[in-house]
Design goal:
alpha+beta, 2 helices, about 40% helix, about 25% strand
Length: about 100
């Protein structure tokens, strides 16, 4: 009986993984993934800076997503999230290069 249960769990995980891979082919889902990735990154790394999300934009020349934030003084910060088809890697963080 436990073999059947573990087999069902494996099948469920595979179905979810396939659905995720298929959904990531749509531009709207890619934008949402890039935004969510960056929001999580900013929350974990810069929660004390009170940054507000501004926009996410795909830049085809680089093949990456540029995500913009602003602080209370209207100073802009940008992050680059890649790759295009599954944007979960923050490649550039403008706060890390700022003293």
């Amino acid at each position: 009986m436990s073999f059947l249960r573990s087999k069902k769990i494996i099948v469920l995980i595979l179905v979810i993984a396939i659905a995720l891979i298929i959904s990531e082919q749509f531009t709207a889902v890619q934008h949402l993934t890039a935004k969510t990735t960056c929001q999580l990154y900013v929350f974990l790394k810069y929660d004390n800076k009170d940054l507000k999300f501004k926009e996410v934009e795909y830049v085809p020349q680089f093949g990456d997503y540029f995500v913009s934030y602003e602080d209370k003084t209207q100073k802009k910060y940008s992050f680059i999230v890649s790759p295009q088809f599954f944007p979960i890697l923050v490649k550039y963080d403008s706060l890390e290069s700022t003293p």
